[in-house]
Amino acid sequence: MASCDHCSVGCLPGEHPGKPLIQLGSRREYVVALAGNPNTGKSTVFNHLTGLRQHTGNWPGKTVARAEGTFIHADQRFKLVDLPGTYSLLTTSIDEEIARDFVLFGRPDCTVVVCDTTVLERNLHLVLQILTITDRVVVCANLMDEADRRKIALEARVLERELGVPVVPTAARRGDGLDRLMERVHQVACGQLRTRPKQVALDPDVEAALRALVSKLEVLVPGLSCPRWIAMRLLEGDARIEEALLNGELASLHRSQHPDSTTGEMATTKQEAVA
Ligand SMILES: Nc1nc2c(ncn2[C@@H]2O[C@H](COP(=O)(O)OP(=O)(O)OP(=O)(O)O)[C@@H](O)[C@H]2O)c(=O)[nH]1
Ligand SMILES: [Mg+2]
Fold first, then answer.
1. Which ligand sits nearest to residue 114's alpha carbon?
2. Is residue 11 part of a domain?
3. 19, 107 in Cβ contact below 8 A?
4. What is the bridge-based pairing of β-strands 22-24 and 27-36?
5. Is residue 231 part of a domain?
6. Listed residue (31, 33, 98) closest to 260, CA to CA
7. Is 262 within the bounds of a domain?
8. Contact assessment for residue 51 and residue 130, using Cβ atoms and an 8 Å cutoff
9. Nearest-ligand number for the alpha carbon of 86
10. Contacts of 179 by beta carbon, 8 Å cutoff, 6+ apart
């Protein structure tokens, strides 16, 4: 049987639902964002997966460091972007804004949310917020070694069913579980694995208002990522999002963060990997 043009995990020709965002010569690569609360091991995962294939620079227009690198899994190339730690997508610190904007407007093929399994409940807050923006999510339940030491058990299958996205237990400091993580990322990025993120049911009136607002947003900012999430923020009176819509920032952010755009490219300097 002929294989998929875009990946090597068994999609049927013509049925590949993913969209390789970047083409380097004849090679395509998927973009993967590493999100999560501060100190959950994002950079440890990043260093393990990318090794020496890393670049650092600054986020466009910001003094916050941006690290990206590449890894190859099953003959497929991935670009990994290590995001600043964030507790929520609703706050206003620069770090959190950068992480939120990349997940929202960078349109990664997969977002890995790295969690500290020893305080999983606290971390799930961000997971649920990200699931309202994108269904291309893999949860990395990190620090499993520490959880084991403290006799905290993780029912990964149950959590997967509850969240509707893959959950991969890892102990990134010693590299445990990272092959499985790459496999799941690959499957989600190329669309082989269909996720069904849990969505909170809304009151019918709110749902109707949301839909009306989404229609208006789609006319105002054509091609805007996740108009539903933005409409929800507007309905909740998020002044920051309202201001960004009114002054055109939302539209320009959408253009600059989108990986197809040249303006979103970061200035990079090669450096040695930490790991
Ligand atoms: N025991 C254990 N420690 C880990 C693991 N992964 C990361 N750590 C440690 O956790 C600390 C934080 O790791 P980082 O990779 O810097 O975390 P981060 O999420 O990038 O942190 P911020 O960028 O500040 O948000 C470091 O001391 C790591 O060595 C793990 O699986 N097990
Ligand atoms: Mg880090």
1. 1
2. no
3. no
4. antiparallel
5. yes
6. 31
7. no
8. no
9. 1
10. none
Residue 201 burial (CB count, 10 A): 7
The closest residue, in CA terms, to atom 2 on ligand 1 is 143
Looking at ligand 1, which residue's alpha carbon is closest to its atom 5?
173
Contact assessment for residue 177 and residue 170, using Cβ atoms and an 8 Å cutoff? yes
Q: Which of 34, 173, 176, 178 to mutate to test the pocket of ligand 1 (most atoms within 8 A of CB)?
A: 173
**For the residues of 196-258, what is the DSSP string, one character each?**
--------HHHHHHHHHHHHHHHHHSTT-S-HHHHHHHHHTT-HHHHHHHHTTHHHHHHHHHS
pLDDT tens-digit profile of 188-228? 999 999 999 987 778 899 999 999 999 999 898 887 878 88
CA angle 233, 211, 218 (to 5 degrees): 80
- Judge if 214 and 125 occupy the same domain: no
Q: Are residues 178 and 70 in the same domain?
A: yes
User: Does one domain contain both 150 and 238?
Assistant: no
Q: Are residues 57 and 188 in the same domain?
A: yes
Which residues constitute the domain of residue 78? 22-199
* Euclidean distance between CA atoms 266 and 81, whole angstroms: 11
CA distance 61 to 232: 27
- One-letter amino acid at 152 equals I
Amino acid 213: pLDDT:
93
More confident residue, 269 or 248: 248
Task: Answer yes or no: do 47 and 118 share one domain.
Answer: yes
145 with 239, same domain? no
Number of structural domains found in the chain: 2
CA–CA separation, 188 and 197 (whole Å): 12
